[in-house]
Amino acid sequence: MNKRPAVLLLLLALVSFLYAPPASAIEVSSTTLPNGLQLVVIPNNAAPVVSHMVWYKVGAIDEQKPHTGLAHFLEHLMFRGTQTLKPGEFSSIVAQLGGNDNAFTSYDFTAYHQTIASAHLERVMQLEADRMRGLIIDTDDAARELKVVMEEYNTRIANVPASHLNAKMIEAAYGTHPYGRQVIGYVEDLARLDKDSAREFYNNYYHPGNAIVVISGDVTPKAAKALATRYYGAVPAREVARPLPALPPLPEARTILHRDEKVQQPQWRRLYPAPSALYAPQEDCDALSVLAQILGSGEASRLQRLLVDEMGIATQTGAYYNDLTLGPSSFQISVTPAQGKKMDAIGSVIDQEIERVKVSGVDDRELQAAKVQLKAQVYFAQDGVEPLGNIVGELYSMGLNKSYLESWEERIEAISSEEIQRVANTYLLEQHAITGQLLAEEK
Amino acid sequence: MSRFFLIATCLLCLLSTPFSFAATIKPIDTPFDKVWLIEDTNIPLITIAVALEGAGAATDPEAYQGRANMAAGLLDRGAGPLSATEFQEALAERAMQFSAYVDKDSLYITVRTLAEYKEKAFELLGYALSAPHFSNEQIAQAKTKQKAALARREESPSYRANVAMNRALYGSHPYGYSILGTQETIDNISKNWLDKYKESFFAAPALNITLVGDISADEAEVLIKQYITLPKRTTAPQDVVQVALPESGSTQMLDMPFEQSAIMFGLPGINVHEDGFYALMLANYALGGGGFESRMMKVIRDTHGLAYSASSYQLLQRQSAPLMGTIGTRYQDAGKSVELLKEIIAGMYQNGISAEELQLAKQYLIGAFPVSLSNQETLASYVRFMQTADLPIDFIDKRTGYIEAVTLEEANEVTRKILDPPKLHIVVVGRQPATEGKE
Asked: In terms of Cα–Cα distance, which of B53, B48, B12 is closest to B32?
C-alpha cells in the first residue's frame, strides 16, 4: 500500500469520527446559479451512492384542455434522444454505469432521477443538463411513445375499477381545475398528443430557472456546486411564466356510485376538500396530518379498531392527507367493506367518528402514538439516499424550504387535541364532502 | 465503526476498479440456524429480517390453501402475554413496523424500529415466534380479510395469469397452490390447523435472522438469548415432495373482461447452486431483465409500442427456479405480442446472445448491486435471502467473480438449454378477440 491511500484512510477515519450526525440534524444546503437553477444538496457519506434528481416546476396543473396529458407524455419523450444521444441511450448509459433511472409526473412537478455510485455523479449531471434544452422529438418516435402511454393508461386506469371511481370523485371535488382530472390526461386528449404540442410545452417550461436539482448522498455541497456550475450553469437562462389556475370553489356534497363488472371487492371512499400548506396556516395542516395518522394509519388506528376489530364491518381502513400541493388538497378516508356489509353502514360510522372528533377531539393515547409515528418518519427517511431526495425535492418545488423539515418534530409535538378539534370543524365539512362507492355490477 | 471499513474499502476500490461492496457481516452464535449482523451506526434505526425455512405455503394441505399466509398475518394479532390490541398498541406507540408474509418455501418477518426500542422489538418478535395465540376471534377476522384481499387480487389480470401459470408448471404439486388460497379453502382453516402448522414448522434449526443497524454484536447476542426461543425439532421436518416439471409447454387463453391483457410466460430454469445459474442470470438480463436494455422492451415496447411493461425474471424457489416473464398489452394486440415474444425466445435459442449484450449485462448486474444495497431494508432482505438460499456469509464479495467469469460460450449453452420453444408455457388473460360479439 503506497502513501496516498494511507493518508486517505486516515482522513476518512477522522471525518467518520467527526461526522457522527446527531439524530435529527439533516444537513440541507441550497444555492442558486446565475441562470436561476436551484441546487439543493443533502450530504450523507454513509455509502458511496447518490440520488440525483431534477425537478421541473411543471405538471398536470399547467395543462389545459384539449391538451391534457402533455406533461406526462413529455416525460416519456425526454428519454427518446437529444442532439447527442440516440433514443433510449440515456437509460442505457446509466445502466452501464450500474445506476437506476426513472421519472415521474405529478400534478405539480415532473422529476427525473438516478441512483448511482457517487463516482458517476458528474456523468448523470452532464446527461440531465444535456436534455434540459437538447431534446429532439422525432415524429415516428412520438407516435410510438404515444402508444406506450395508451398502454400505461390501460394498466393504471382502464384495467382498474377504482381508478374510474377516483376520476369521478376528483371531478366532483375540483370541477374544471386541473386537479379534477387524472395526471395521465383524458383519453380523448391523449389521441391528439403529438410532437409539436410536446415541443411547445418543453420550450415553455424546461429551463434552468424552472428547475431544481436535488442531490442526496455522498457528495459535499462545494463539490456539487462546482459540477452544477460546469454542466447546468452552461444552460442559458430564460424567464418562465407559470401562472397557476385559481383555486376552485368548494363543491356541493355528493355521493357517487361506480359499478363495474370487474369489481370483486367493493370500496368506500370519502374526500373532504382541505387546504394546502401554501394557502393555510401550517398549524392547521399539521393538525390535519396528525388527525389522518390517528384515524387511518395502520392496525392500531382509530378506524381500524372500530370498523374492523370491534364492528367487523370492514377489512381495511385508511386515511390520507398531504399538505404539499400547489392546488387544493384533500383529506381522504378509504374503507374496504367486509363481505355482505352495507355501504350505508360504513358511511354512518365514518360520519359519526368525524362528528366525535369535532365535538370532543382525540384521546391522549392515540395522539401520543401518532406523534411518535410522524416524528419517526424523519429517521426512517434517512435510510438510503432516495427518501430525503424525494421529500426535499417536493418541498422545494412547492417553493418551501428546509425549515419545513427542521421544524417538523417541534411542530408535530405542539399539536393538541383542541387543535385537531378545531381543524376538523373548520375543514371536514359535511356540506362539501364527496363520497364514493365502488360496486360490482347489479345482478 | 464498521462503516469506516466499508467506506475505506470502497474508496480503495474506486481508485482502481469500479466500486465494490465489502459488507462486514458478523455471525452471532445462537442455537438457531444462522444469525448475522451488519452494524450501522449512521442512523438510529434497526432492521430485523427473519426467515423460518420450510414454513412456506407449500406446506398447506390442498384443502387448506392459504393457511401459511393466514398464520403469518396472525403473528402480531395476539402473542405471548399480549392480546391483539396490546400487541398492536405496543408497536404503534413506538412507531415500530412489524410485517410478516410467506412465499412457497418460508415464512418471513421484518421488524423495523428506532434504535431506542431495540429491546422491545426483540421481545415482541420473541412472542410472535414462540407463542402466537391464533385465537378464534382473530381467525374469524383474518378469514374475512384474506377473502377480501383475494377478491381484490382477482381483479388484476396479472394475478390471474400467475395462478394459471403455477398450475401449468406444477400441476397438483403444492408449488401449484395459491398462496392466498381460494374463497373455499380459506373458510376451511381452523385453529387446529394453524396450531398444527406452528408446531410442525416453528423450530430452532429453521430460524434465520439478519440484523442491520444500530446494534452491536454483544447487544444482539444478549437480546436474542433473552427473548428468542423456539423448540428444538422433535421430529424431522416433512420435506415438501420433489416437484417434477412437465416435459412440454402449454398455452392457456383465459377470457376475462380486462382492457389490457396480462401475458405471462414460463420455462424450467436453473437454480442458485446449479451449473449455469449466473449464465442464465446474464441471459435473462438480455431477454427481459434489463429494462430498456432488454430484447423484450426493445422489440415489444420501443419498436412496436405495444406495451408499457415487458420483463422477465428468475423466480428462485427452493425446488424450482423457473424463468418467467410478463407483458401488459391491450387485448387486441395480445396475439401479436405473443408472436413477438416467441420470436425473441426462438431467436435467442438459435443464436444465443451477443458479446455486447453479455458485457452490458455484466456491467449492470455487477455495478448496480452495491447501489441497491445501500439502505437497511433491501440489505437486510438480501442477506436474509443469502441465508435461506444457503449462500455463504462472504457471498457478496464472491458474486462479482462468479458473474464476471461467465463466458459467451457458457451463456449461449444455457440459452440453448433453457429457451427451448417446445417447453414454453404461455398464459394470456384478458378479452379474447375470438369470443367478441358472441356474448
From this structure: B53
CB atoms under 10 Å from CB of A197, counted, come to: 18
Report phi then psi at A335, rounded to 5. -140, 135
Residue carrying C-alpha cell 467473480? B401
Beta A100-105 vs A110-117: how paired, if at all? antiparallel
Is the pLDDT confidence value at B334 over 90? yes
Q: Helix, strand or coil for residue B203?
A: coil
> Among A13-17, B214-218, B433-437, whose mean pLDDT is lowest?
A13-17
CB atoms within 10 A of CB A364: 10
CA-to-CA distance for B427 and B50, rounded, in angstroms? Answer: 34
Q: What is the ipTM of this complex?
A: 0.89
Q: Which chain A residues are within 8 Å of B40, Cβ to Cβ?
A: 46
Q: CA A318, CA A294: separation in Å to the nearest integer?
A: 10
CA distances from A340 to A106, A343, A347 (A): 36, 9, 15
Transcribe A349-395 into DSSP letters: HHHHHHHHHHHH---HHHHHHHHHHHHHHHHHTTSSSHHHHHHHHHH
- Map grid coordinates 401520543 to a residue: A368
CB hemisphere CA count around A137 (13 angstroms) = 24
Which tens digits make up the pLDDT trace of B222-264? Answer: 999 999 999 988 666 667 778 889 989 999 999 998 888 999 9
Whether A75 sits among the annotated catalytic residues: the reply is yes
Closest CB from B14, B91, B290 relative to A300: B91
Residue with cell 393538525: A287
Q: Which pLDDT score is estimated for A126?
A: 98
Contact list, A386 vs chain B (CB under 8 Å): 375
Cβ neighbours, 10 Å, residue A355: 13
Total count of residues recorded for chain B: 439
- A379 and B91 within 8 Å at the Cβ level: the answer is no
| Cis check: omega of the bond before A387, within 30 degrees of 0 | no
- CB of A68 within 8 A of CB of A189? yes
User: What is the spatial distance between Cα A266 and Cα A262, in angstroms, rounded to a whole number?
Assistant: 10
Please answer yes or no on whether B92 and A97 come within 8 Å at the CB atom: no
| Cα nearest neighbour of B91 on chain A | A300
Which residues pair with residue A267 across a beta bridge? A438
Residues 6 or more apart whose CB falls under 8 angstroms from that of B74 comprise: B132, B133, B134, B138, B139, B142, B194
Q: Single out the catalytic residue among A63, A75, A171, A386.
A: A75
Contacts of B218 (CB under 8 A, 6+ apart): none
In chain B, what is the straight-line distance between the N-terminal and C-terminal CA atoms, in Å?
Answer: 69
Name the residue type at position A316. Answer: Q
> Cα dihedral sign for B148, B154, B158, B160?
positive
Question: Looking at chain A, which residue has its C-alpha nearest residue B40?
Answer: A46
Confidence (pTM): 0.91
Cell of B40: 450501522
